[in-house]
Amino acid sequence: MLRYFWLSLGFASVGLAVIGIVLPLLPTTPFLLMAAFCFSRSSQRFHDWLLDHPRLGPGIRTWRAHGAIGRRAKFAAIGALAGALGLTVLVGLEPWIIGVQALVALCVATFILTRPDGPAG
User: Can you tell me the distance from the alpha carbon of 10 to that of 86, in angstroms, rounded to the nearest whole number?
Assistant: First the structure.
């Protein structure tokens, strides 16, 4: 029964990660890391599939090996944060909402930019 819990949570995490690829404020990598964690407790087959996936796997492997976020992923994440904040300003939401979003984006950006880039080449 516990195996099915971890398997379900793993698939839900992969689903949220895929959605996060196109939605700027939904993070992709943390959900992929969670999926890898869940699959490691429920299905070696899905765990291996996720780590070997050509698009999803490299970020997980880099994070596990080096605690790093690739430079390209950093630029994409910071660009998405800035784009989402810009969209919020253009839509004209309340200033306090923009302020909260800016503060959260600043904290996330600080975390991302303080991680190492990972191994060269």
Answer: 32
Please name the residues in contact with 23: beta carbons below 8 A apart, sequence gap of 6 or more: none
Non-local CB neighbours of 52 within 8 Å, separated by 6+ positions: none
Question: Helix, strand, coil proportions of the chain in percent (round to 5)?
Answer: 75, 0, 25
Q: CA 56, CA 17: separation in Å to the nearest integer?
A: 9
At 64-92, the pLDDT tens digits run 889 898 888 888 888 888 988 999 999 99
Instruction: Record the pTM.
Output: 0.72
Residue that has been written with the tokens 């950093």 in this structure = 74
- The count of residues in the chain is 121
